[in-house]
Amino acid sequence: MPTPFIMPKVDMDQEKATIISWNKSEGDEVKQDETVLVVETEKVAIDVPAPATGTLVDIRFKAGDVVPIATTIAYILGKGETINDIPGRTAGTATPAAKAVETAKVAATPTPVALRAALELGVNINEVPSHGGRISREDVEAYAKSLQGEVVAAVEPTEAGKIAATPAARRLAQEAGIALENLTGSGPRGRIQAQDVVARPAAQPMAKPSVQPAVQPATTSVGERSAKVIPMTNMRQKIAERLQASFRDVPHIFLTAEADVTRLEEARKRLNDIAAKQSGSKVSLTAMLVKVIAWALERNPSMNASLIDQSIYLWEDVNIGVATALDEGLIVPVIRNANHLSISQISEKIVDLSKRAREGKLTLSEVKGGTFTISNLGMFGIPQFNAVINPPESGILATGAVVRKPVVVDEYD
């Protein structure tokens, strides 16, 4: 019996994944646990291994397709098996997936994101073909692209001159040696997506194309007001869903306290002076706070805990998440066993994780398993703010800016 190759569920709240690239082609021999394709979830890009050894056949989805979890994306034939042994398939007949593609243009329900994309791109939602009975944002964008005859939005630089691209797209472009400025983005406001990189040939000398005006969001009227509608990315949509659910389902008790960090800053200066003499990396205030939090969680295990299925789990490992802002949204890389690391080791890990988060190179294990999170906005001069708990964690520390001010040290009797 051929082994089905199923789109895996790699995160608790994952519903779908986007295929970034296939490392193997139809008819190729694969070995069990060998990486066959790369997919992107709302959080990271991950390598998907083969579930068995044999011949890869009946590939049902291509790079750029958004596939629900638990969907069969291909089959692997064992010794003596043929493609006709695939369930539901006989010689000369199409696979269920192929039939679904042939009947794609049927009455379907558009998602809210698809409706916003249709409004932005000026597309009649009733004319958009779908797959699986629902019209997604990707369906709308693909249909709009077909109407424009391959003329799509050009790359729209960010305010800082940085080209708008998803982390997965940056990762693929870097690995393939392709300059992002030579790509045309098909995402909202010209953002470069993984499929745009996949569709580009391997690195070669290319002349920088002339930049075309980016497609602007469509203006709509709401009563007497007007607005430009911009559809959310998958990452931003998932962030909104998770934080909304957290704020609704998790009791939040906000406590604010000021702390004298004079000694902390003096210690950081000494460590950085030593690092400069030894050509080491500078230690950040965030790194020192992570160490302090890990120390405190060891001594207060009820805070290093999660409520799961009506049971309280007191975690033995102390894994601190550090909220990191990206152009596309927010991600929380995790520093595992922070209580067993030195301050310099923690600082190096924060720098490494933050860099790879911006490049879209984090692995799934590096964004899972956190037991407590720190969100530091002090570098932006924000003195105080309320952060939302990252479930299933039980707490989060919102750290503001260090402010120098006079205080009373000794009081009179």
Describe the structure.
- With 413 residues, the protein is α+β, with helices and mostly antiparallel strands.
- It is built from nine helices and 20 strands.
- The strands form seven sheets. A four-stranded antiparallel β-sheet has the order 1-8-6-3, with no helix packed on it. Strands 5-4-2-7 form a four-stranded antiparallel β-sheet. The protein has a four-stranded mixed β-sheet with strand order 18-15-19-20, with helices on one face.
- Helix 2 (112-121) packs parallel to helix 3 and helix 8 (285-299) packs across helix 9 (343-358).
- It is globular.
- The model is unreliable at 90-107, 149-160 and 202-216 (pLDDT under 50).
Rounded to an integer, what's the Rg over CA atoms? 25 Å
In the sheet with the most strands, the strands line up as: 1-8-6-3
**Global morphology:** globular
Number of helices: 9
Structural class comes to: alpha+beta
The string of secondary-structure elements, in order, is EEEEEEEEHEHEHHHEEHHHEEEEEEHEE
Poorly predicted parts? 90-107, 149-160, 202-216
State the end-to-end distance: 86 Å
Strand percentage: 15-25%
Average pLDDT for all residues? 76
Overall helicity: 25-40%
Main sheet: strands, sense, barrel: 4 strands, antiparallel
**Total beta strand runs:** 20
